[in-house]
Amino acid sequence: MIVDVREVSRRFGKHSALKDVSFQIPEGVVFGLLGPNGAGKTTTIKMITTLLQPTSGLIKVGGRDVTKDPTGVRKQIGVVFQDPSHDEQLTAVENMRLHARLYRVNSNVRESRIEELLRMFDLWDRRDSKLKTFSGGMKRRLEIARGLLHTPRLLILDEPTLGLDPQMRHQLWSQVRALRDKEGVTVLLTTHYMSEVERVADLIAIIHHGILISHNTPEHIKAGCNATSLEEAFMSLTSESHEDPSSRIETTSAITSPV
Ligand SMILES: Nc1ncnc2c1ncn2[C@@H]1O[C@H](COP(=O)(O)OP(=O)(O)OP(=O)(O)O)[C@@H](O)[C@H]1O
Ligand SMILES: [Mg+2]
């Protein structure tokens, strides 16, 4: 197991963003972490990437404890966050070089790795263009390429297809599959596109109000709900998801206890 999350909870003041969540990710799979807005996906990702400490519980990445050995954990992970930041004045290749230095990519392989990744994500021809001239999809692809510079075992993508058109999303999912199949990278991703994640993910975890409510293959999740699509299964598992999130602080216990 490359990721081991055991009985993890995270509070923000009085609000429990994550409650006693456990799941494991085997090496070499695409793992989809799903849930309605505010379910706790980004919070989970921030804890796995060592940016946020669990209030209780244990998280290991490649056998290393996120709390005790954050540096060891970070070396194994490439991450693309939901709200990325860019230096718009840099060109694609300058941006890659900057991050290669930050990630201490060996100077012998730096330029060849940058070329390999820019080609993989169809950005080589635009390598000398400034990021301010890039479309949203090109920026997304550059971020993913950047996250792979130090050849991580685990790539984490928080809503990688947000704001992309259907063609771009299709292309990005193909690239995610290729990373798994050709490079053996384990991919942990979140998305709200159910029909797309159903085709790309080997395993899925669904969190709802901070609780893990399902953890299985897409086929088993559908069968368990008697649903014909993952979206249908997701909707039936999270049917009260459209309430006002701000009301949840007071209602959490009512929701979590069986009625
Ligand atoms: N730094 C913080 N301080 C206080 N509350 C927070 C903080 N970060 C997250 N939360 C709360 O924790 C809950 C989970 O948030 P999180 O960002 O993990 O959701 P998400 O599943 O990623 O949602 P989305 O699909 O909208 O990205 C939300 O209720 C959110 O308001
Ligand atoms: Mg999020």
Polypeptide structure, described:
This protein is of the alpha/beta class and 259 residues long. It has two domains: 3-76 and 153-256, Rossmann fold; 85-151, no CATH class. The protein is built from ten helices and ten strands. Strands 6-7-8-3-9-10 form a six-stranded mixed beta sheet, with helices on both faces. The model is unreliable at 241-259 (pLDDT under 50). The chain binds adenosine-5'-triphosphate (ATP) and magnesium ion. Residues 12, 15, 17, 35, 37-43, 82, 245 line the site of adenosine-5'-triphosphate (ATP).
For the residues shown, what is the average pLDDT? 89
Largest sheet: 6 strands, mixed
N- and C-termini, Cα separation? 35 Å
Q: Report the order of strands and helices.
A: EEEHEEHEHHHEHEHEEHHH
Number of helices: 10
Approximate helicity band: 25-40%
CATH architecture of the largest domain: 3-Layer(aba) Sandwich
**Biggest sheet strand line-up:** 6-7-8-3-9-10
Structural class: alpha/beta
Going by CATH, the homologous superfamily of the largest domain would be P-loop containing nucleotide triphosphate hydrolases
Write the layout of secondary structure elements.
Blueprint: E1 3-12, E2 15-25, E3 30-34, H1 41-48, E4 56-61, E5 64-65, H2 70-75, E6 77-80, H3 92-102, H4 107-120, H5 136-147, E7 154-158, H6 166-183, E8 186-190, H7 194-200, E9 203-208, E10 211-216, H8 218-225, H9 230-237, H10 248-256
Parallel strand pairs: 3-8, 3-9, 6-7, 7-8
Antiparallel strand pairs: 1-2, 1-4, 4-5, 9-10
Helix pairs in contact: 3-4, 8-9
The structure holds adenosine-5'-triphosphate and magnesium ion.
